[in-house]
Specification:
This protein is an alpha/beta fold. It folds into 4 domains: 80 residues, DnaA, N-terminal domain (GMP Synthetase, Chain A, domain 3, 2-Layer Sandwich), CATH 3.30.300; 175 residues, P-loop containing nucleotide triphosphate hydrolases (Rossmann fold); 73 residues, Helicase, Ruva Protein, domain 3; 91 residues, Chromosomal Replication Initiator Protein Dnaa, Chain: A. The chain is built from 20 helices and 8 strands.
Length: 447
């Protein structure tokens, strides 16, 4: 157990440096080593189911890689919810010290340094939300309050909220701000009720200049918490302060919420973030790689990630981080084959089932050739090049083997498919027209 404890101390240090202080304090600092851990099987505990699930979603693979680096025999890292909630994880308002609690907002919150407006990649799917967030952060009387951001998981809501915090405090050095999840809002409110001192809780939140509450959907059905939240919203709207709310759906679609509260939330500006399209996902991968100057990633691998992982941006970033980590830990070069093997299950799970027949139809329509020509013996460039592109897309967008792809193109040998894939990869780096055609086709097929 001593060796595991030393390994855990090493891993915690690495996580603190890589995650940043705010993210580490909020999600990773509460993680503890559980008795019964061994060099082969490490057990980690967290104080709540919500936190356990969040760390699982974002750090389970990273934790396993970190432990393997110091414990070569480690085969699993499990995350579990502890029976009792350590008081050090969430810090409720203290009943015996209301003055100190009320003064807490004067401390500068630790917004994640990675989440700024400059690092948020935009296109038509998120531009309204982005511009609205920038407007909220500007000095002077806010144009609207509350700002209500809604989108599916991992589409950039939290990024924008932290960006607002950074920009607002930079423009207003003497201002105060709080960012809190709805779960923590509820936890601290319940603690204040038990301590019979809700005054300090209210004073702490309502005295700040900017209040941001994330994941609002988690207080659905919590009547007492919603009542307090309703009064907080009214207070901020009445005093002209900035209030930013984020949830996974529009106000009217929130489940277990009172009609009057949904109405209040919708009275400001409601901005949605739609799922990122192919070109935006590609731009996000490129942006993330700027922070990894030592990483050499071919364009076809970037395209693979952007084309296959369509569910949300967070999963896309997770796949990118996993790929880079595996390459560094195994001292291997990132290639298309390495990426396919490393992310095999991720790619299969994320991928929409695109068929070779769909690819052939799309290619024939794009290049205005007959679909039957793609499987014929004709070797004219006007036919051969679209055929090679179709084979390339079949290799990139389906899980079919090389022999299976060859059979779908007039019973050609798998070596012909390999040649086609390499040829198109080479041309994409030299011929902007070919590269543009491939991008257009990938976007069409994915849509």
């Amino acid at each position: 157990m001593e060796a595991v404890a030393k390994a855990w101390a090493h891993v915690r240090g690495n996580l603190r440096r890589s995650a940043g202080q705010r993210l580490f304090d909020q999600w990773l600092k509460p993680v503890v080593l559980v008795d019964g851990s061994s060099a082969e099987s490490v057990r980690l505990g967290l104080p709540s189911t919500f936190m356990t699930q969040w760390v699982k979603n974002h750090y389970s693979e990273r934790l396993l890689l970190e432990f393997r680096a110091v414990l070569p025999d480690c085969t699993s890292v499990t995350l579990e919810t502890l029976a009792e909630e350590p008081k050090r994880v969430l810090k409720p308002v203290a009943a015996e010290a209301p003055a100190a609690a009320a003064a807490a907002p004067t401390e500068r919150p630790q917004f994640d340094s990675r989440f700024t407006f400059q690092r948020f990649v935009t296109d038509a799917t998120n531009r309204v939300a982005f511009n609205a967030a920038k407007a909220v952060a500007q000095p002077g009387v806010p144009q609207f309050s509350p700002l209500y951001l809604h989108a599916g998981t991992g589409q950039g809501k939290t990024h924008l909220m932290h960006a607002i915090g950074h920009a607002f405090l930079e423009a207003n050095p003497d201002a105060t701000a709080i960012y809190v999840t709805a779960e923590r809002f509820m936890f601290e409110f319940v603690q204040a009720l038990r301590a019979k001192d809700t005054h300090a809780f209210k004073a702490r939140l309502r005295s700040v200049d900017l209040l941001m509450i994330d994941d609002l959907q988690f207080i659905g059905g919590k009547d007492a918490t919603q009542e307090e939240f309703f009064h907080t919203v009214n207070e901020f709207m009445g005093s002209g302060k900035r209030l930013v709310i984020a949830a996974d759906r529009a106000p009217q679609a929130l489940e277990g919420f009172e009609t009057r509260l949904a109405g209040r939330l919708g009275s400001g500006l409601v901005a949605d973030i739609k799922p990122a399209e192919l070109e935006l996902r590609r731009a996000i991968v490129a942006q993330k790689l700027k922070d990894m100057p030592a990483v050499d990633m071919p364009h076809e691998v970037m395209d693979l990630l952007a084309a296959r992982i369509t569910s949300n941006v967070r999963e896309l970033e997770g796949a990118l981080n996993r790929l880079v980590a595996y390459a560094q830990l195994s001292d291997q070069t990132i290639t298309i084959d390495f990426a396919t093997v490393t992310l095999g299950e991720v790619l299969r799970t994320a991928q929409r089932r695109i068929t070779i027949d769909e690819i052939q139809r799309a290619v024939s329509a794009h290049f205005e050739v007959k679909q039957i020509d793609l499987i014929s013996e004709r070797r004219a460039v006007a036919i051969a090049r679209p055929r090679q592109i179709a084979m390339y897309l079949a290799k990139r967008l389906t899980t079919r083997s090389l022999p299976e792809i060859g059979r779908k193109f007039g019973n050609r040998d798998h070596s012909t498919v390999i040649h086609a894939v390499k040829r198109i990869e080479d041309l994409r780096g030299k011929d902007s027209e070919i590269d543009g055609a491939v991008r257009t086709l990938m976007r069409t097929l994915e849509g």
